[in-house]
Write a structure and sequence with these properties.
The chain has about 80 residues and is mainly alpha-helical. It has a domain of about 50 residues. Helix content is about 65%, strand content about 0%.
C-alpha cells in the first residue's frame, strides 16, 4: 500500500467531481439519519460523529477548491473587484 511522506498509508481513487458530490450527499444523509437507524436496532454507532463531520468538511473544501480553480480567469477578477 502506498504511503505519504509521514508513512501514513493512503488509497488513491480515480474519481471525478460527480463522484465526490454523491459521496458528500451520502455522508450528509448518513449523518442526519444514522442515530435513529442505530437506535432502532439498539446498536452502538460504528464511528464517532466527529469523523463524519470531518469527512464532510474535507469534501466541501475539495469541491469548493475545484469550483474556484475551474472558474474562468475574468470571472474571479470580477468577484474580487466587487469586494
Amino acid at each position: 500500500m502506498p504511503a505519504d511522506e509521514f508513512g501514513r498509508p493512503f488509497v488513491k481513487v480515480e474519481w471525478q467531481m460527480p463522484h465526490l458530490r454523491v459521496l458528500k450527499n451520502a455522508l450528509h444523509f448518513y449523518r442526519e439519519y444514522r442515530v435513529e437507524i442505530f437506535d432502532r436496532d439498539k446498536t452502538e454507532l460504528p464511528e464517532p460523529t466527529e469523523v463524519i463531520i470531518d469527512m464532510e468538511k474535507s469534501l466541501d473544501r475539495m469541491l469548493l477548491e475545484f469550483q474556484y480553480h475551474s472558474q474562468p480567469a475574468d470571472a474571479s477578477e470580477d468577484v474580487q473587484g466587487d469586494i
